[in-house]
User: Fold this.
Amino acid sequence: MTETLLEAREVGFAYRSGRPVLEGVSVAVTAGRGLGLVGESGAGKTTLLRLLLGLARPTTGQVLFGGAPLAPREPAFRRAVQPVFQDPYSSLDPRQRVGRIVSEPLRALGLLSPGSRKAKRDEAAERVAEALRSVGLPTDAARRYPHEFSGGQRQRVAIARAVVCRPRVLLADEPVSALDVSTRLRVVELLGGLGESHGLTIVVVSHDLSVVAALCAETAVIEGGRVVEQGDTAGVLGSPAHPYTRRLIESVPRLSRAARLQ
Assistant:
């Protein structure tokens, strides 16, 4: 039986004195099956991700974690569900070394074993080194600052920070949109590899349907704050049933044959 890790059940969200951003949205994150959230800008994808992260509360409906109402401050939730944000240039504190940045969840969530300060420092350094290796960065990266890395490397640091506490779910908001094309491919391959090696279930908000196709077994298409189509990614993207989904797929840029041959 498939385990539901995280669920939005008939959620709606509206800012004060504003029209609803989401209405009656239901999606489920099941163990081992990545979920892609796709739609045009302003459709409500990032708002839904914020609700799943507990960064905002739904106006109507509810978000469930492990079958119970989401309690964002609960350590079990904060350890199990970790975010990766869009811009690696603004999501890392430029004043701190990478080792301090990556180990922050271990300290904040009290995940280090009881013991002396030295024992905790040693354990944190070991966990940081493990996380850095898992994203393809050398362990000596811990001694450097974010500005010493390229955009793709900074996003790897952000991913290392997310996986250091060994979460079950990674919520990624446009994780490669700020990167160049070749770097995007490598980061997508990294995320896919981490999903397999670390047992991570990845939820991705992306305008890039190829990213969703590579990482997500299931896809939900959002238009104007409502889910208009969802199901297996191969079916949704390969044989879309809703006109909006078909328009999304048709809008993907394609090079002409002449351009490809140049």
Observations:
- The CA atoms of residues 49 and 171 lie 7 Å apart.
- The radius of gyration is 19 Å.
- Residues 255-262 have pLDDT under 50 and may be disordered.
